[in-house]
């Protein structure tokens, strides 16, 4: 699993270098607490198998339940979290569009796949189970999930055939034909601005970060920046930054033998008493108790 610091802009390889395709099975909160805001260059489809969770894609949030499908085009900022105390079990299907066509000059890539490579390519990102398009896509998605461990002769051709069929349906029934609208342009600008903020946080979270300096990189006033970030993420920048720091600290507690004071300082907490209080508020135990429980 990618560390907290690696999750913002993922550049890890999914599948084989010669066959960039993977299916992941995830359960929140049993296997991980949440998957914070991040993006990657691959196309992703998320199928809800059981339960319900809170899903966010490009600033749009929805509670998704069993049978729902979430489309995550390349470059889309997305996150997955618990809905209160509920659990959610889902499958991620992640693949590079180069799997289907390596030549960017080909007819298929120029006319179809290139349009699917942009983060605003889809009209609807959340396809609910009762919708006609979801009912058409579900058997194809479930077929890919059922064959996720397959290695029989020719299975790669079956996977590519299913992916082509899925993209054919999405292209013809869910392509965004309003990409040039003012609203769509604003959404694209907001996504770029949020990526800039998250990338800056990733690089500097161990240092002192002020609202003033982060607002400067977004060309917004401090008050507009705070409103923008809250609208995009559902939380304040300070809380988001502290959660990010605490998650990074929690990983170090389990993966290293460093002193708790050193871990706190390395993750942007200058006041050790405040770090312990914040950690206990988030994880319901002290850093020492968290490390002890994780090593048992």
UniProtKB/TrEMBL annotation:
Gene Ontology terms for molecular function: DNA-binding transcription factor activity; sequence-specific DNA binding
Transmembrane segments: none
InterPro entries in UniProt: AraC-bd, Homeodomain-like_sf, HTH-like, HTH_AraC, HTH_AraC-typ_CS, RmlC-like_jellyroll, Tscrpt_reg_AraC-type_HTH
Lineage top rank: taxon: Bacteria
Pfam families: AraC_binding, HTH_18
SMART domains the UniProt entry points to: HTH_ARAC
Every HTH araC/xylS-type domain range: 195-293
Keywords carried by this UniProt record: DNA-binding, Transcription, Transcription regulation
PANTHER family named in the record: ARAC-FAMILY TRANSCRIPTIONAL REGULATOR, HTH-TYPE TRANSCRIPTIONAL REGULATOR EXSA
Protein name, entry field: AraC-type DNA-binding protein
């Amino acid at each position: 699993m990618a560390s907290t610091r690696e999750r913002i802009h993922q550049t890890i390889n999914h599948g084989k270098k010669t066959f960039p395709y993977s299916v992941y099975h995830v359960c929140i909160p049993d296997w991980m607490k949440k998957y914070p805001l991040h993006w990657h260059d691959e196309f992703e489809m998320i199928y809800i198998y059981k339960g319900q969770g809170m899903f966010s894609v490009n600033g749009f949030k929805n509670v998704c339940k069993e049978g729902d499908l979430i489309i995550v085009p390349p470059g889309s900022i997305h996150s997955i979290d618990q809905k209160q105390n509920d659990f959610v079990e889902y499958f991620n299907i992640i693949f590079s569009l180069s799997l289907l066509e390596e030549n960017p000059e080909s007819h298929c890539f120029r006319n179809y796949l290139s349009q699917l490579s942009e983060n605003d390519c889809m009209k609807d990102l959340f396809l609910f189970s009762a919708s006609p398009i979801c009912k058409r896509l579900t058997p194809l998605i479930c077929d890919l999930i059922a064959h996720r461990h397959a290695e029989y002769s020719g299975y790669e051709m079956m996977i590519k055939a299913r992916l082509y069929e899925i993209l054919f349906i999405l292209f013809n029934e869910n392509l965004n034909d309003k990409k040039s609208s003012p609203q769509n342009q604003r959404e694209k600008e907001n996504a770029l601005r949020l990526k800039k903020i998250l990338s800056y946080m990733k690089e500097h979270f161990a240092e002192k970060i002020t609202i003033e300096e982060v607002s400067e990189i977004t060309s917004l006033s401090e008050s507009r920046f705070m409103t923008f970030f809250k609208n995009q993420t559902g939380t304040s920048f300070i809380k988001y930054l502290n959660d990010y720091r605490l998650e990074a600290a929690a990983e170090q507690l389990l993966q290293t033998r460093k002193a708790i004071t050193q871990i706190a300082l390395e993750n942007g907490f200058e006041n050790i008493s405040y770090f312990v209080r914040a950690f206990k508020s988030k994880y319901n135990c002290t850093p020492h108790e968290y490390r002890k429980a994780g090593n048992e």
